[in-house]
Amino acid sequence: MNYRMAKTGKLMIEILPNKCDFCGCCVGVCPEDAIELKEAEISIIDERCTNCSKCIWSCPIEVIKFNKNGLPKVVSYEK
Amino acid sequence: MKNDYDIIVVGAGPAGSIAARSAAEKGVSVLMLEKDRDVGYPVRCGEAISKAGVEEFIQPNEKWICAKISQFCFVAPDKSEVWIEFGDAGFVLERKIFDYELAQTAAAAGTEIITRCYVYDLIIENGKVCGVKYESQGEKKEVRSKIVIAADGVESRVGRWAGLKTEIDFREMESAVQITAANIPINQNALYFYFGQNVAPNGYFWIFPKGNNSANIGLGVSGIVGKKKSALSFLNDFMNEHYPNAPILTQIAGGVPCSLTLEKISAPGIMLVGDAARQVNPLSGGGIASGMIGGSIAGKIAAEAILKNNLDHILSYDRAWNDRLGKRHEIFNRIKNGIYNFSDDTFNSLAKTFIKVPLEKRTLGRLFTQALINKPSLLVEVAKVFVI
Questions:
Q1: Quick one: pLDDT band at residue B387, thresholds 50, 70, 90?
Q2: Longest pairwise C-alpha distance within chain A
Q3: CATH (domain of A52)
Q4: Residue A27: its chain B contacts at CB < 8 A?
Q5: Judging by beta carbons within 10 Å of its beta carbon (0-12, 13-18, 19+), is residue B383 exposed, middle or buried?
Q6: In this complex, do A25 and B255 lie within 8 Å of one another by their Cβ atoms?
Q7: Any domain includes A17
Q8: Which residues from chain A sit within 8 angstroms of residue B231, using beta carbons?
Q9: Is B148 within 8 Å of chain A by CB?
Q10: What's the pLDDT tens digit per position in B140-188?
């Protein structure tokens, strides 16, 4: 399988797209400026992310998860 | 819209609008860009502010005042309540309308404003910020300026692109969640603060009245706490216990940077204001008034720099901010570190002692004195408040 690649290997930080409130906590604590937040869109800039998990700890509503298997390149949102 | 301005302000919250207004009033050209569709929405705030904090910048108006505050109620972990009366201390705002109105005052002073403009990078030439790159209506564009004022909120990315260190330690980020609920039968003139390990460890839980028996109910927790239990989970527990059937009108998340102001809030061609500069009062988490103060200082200095044709003048902003509030925030931050580490027993015994003081003699100062008896090392910090 093809994985998304972070700065430090496989990307393991996963933002659950439909739960986010776009509040910006994670962006403020990210040491690598690796999160892009627009009006109602959020995404990780893969090549900057170091999987440090600070965004996960600072998310007030549990929208960001640590996926230890890594994120596959093509993400399907359907269950 | 022109392609060159004296000043560009990124973000149209209270800090951005006051920065834009303060500059435009001096006759320089100002453009303010907002990433969202509307100025003032979505709101990410508990919406409480002191009366003095408002009046320095705008005449209070019923249109955006939901509740007038004259009392505080501190609730200890054992649920004992400590009431303090104040007279007319402050307001709970309707930020949607308040922010909108502030932006209108900036516009009246001559600021051009555009919403749905997402700034994604800076134009930097010879080490100086010379404008911004933005996305609007699906197109990428550029606009130049002599000075950029970054009022881009808790995210604070614009400053990073200029080489300033704006990242906040996750332990100092209070990750917050709040609902506005109806049918909450509280005193509509009181702010309620709950303390304790079960409701809001290392922070506080709040209920602020919003008129018509509705209220803002929320809390913030540090990333240290958030590692184990999220703010949302604390809020759900509280609501299930106290108001299980309250209708929820709004639910929002947000981050409150409860830290010291950044070490540097200006650099060639750029100034940071409000949450982006970490100008929040680290003890209370209040950022509207302090953001507006930061904005007004920055806006005035930026305009002076343009008018004097001396752009290096903007570097005096750091010092001006520190003299007005920055140094005071250092003290608040130390007090926060003292109080937020109180155990539930300390809070309970504090409440028990204080309740014996007659209502008319209760002041925040006296409450604080009691806190000192429980933690004498705080005395040194308090002494500094009066010495500095």
A1: very low
A2: 33
A3: 3.30.70.20
A4: 154-157
A5: exposed
A6: yes
A7: yes
A8: 60-61
A9: no
A10: 999 999 999 999 999 999 999 999 999 999 999 999 999 999 999 999 9
